[in-house]
Amino acid sequence: MATTSALIAIAACVVLVWSGLEKLRNRVPLAETVSTLTGSPTFASRVAIIVPGFELATVGVVVLGAPAYLASAMFVALGATFAIAGAWARRTGRVIPCACFGGTAGRLGLRQVGALPLWLVAAWAALHLGSFTVPERLAVFTWGVVGLGAARAVPALRGYAAARHDRRALVGGR
Fold first, then answer.
1. What is the pTM of this model?
2. Where in the sequence is the domain holding 9, given as residue range(s)?
3. Between helices 2-25 and 68-92, what is the axis angle to 10°?
């Protein structure tokens, strides 16, 4: 059970790193989403800094071995916040772009509400990490980030290969 909880908690952390860094890279989509939800651009600009910071802080708490209850509470807080935002968007009936991973690929609503049980599972997993040392957590986390990087690189490399093939076709097959 300890290994399962470690894999779940670290997988959640890898997703949070991706999400948090994307939101920090470009804060505009999150700020627009929050502004649309709340009607307050000032509040939205603050949230666009706080949310990714909280996501990355959650990763730090898990990986660096802070008290398990703190990591668990942070997962619950993130999940509840996102579920409330999704429910609010759904209730108002407005189409609000989702800024989950820094972009606006989907709309805010049922996905965020439906993801709440996954956040709660991550919170449960964080409570059961006590037997893992910080170096073990860091090693698993590092491999998770490497795996995520590889998964994110594959589409980019395929696009590069296709563009190169198209370019060769344009110049006579060289």
1. 0.81
2. 2-170
3. 60
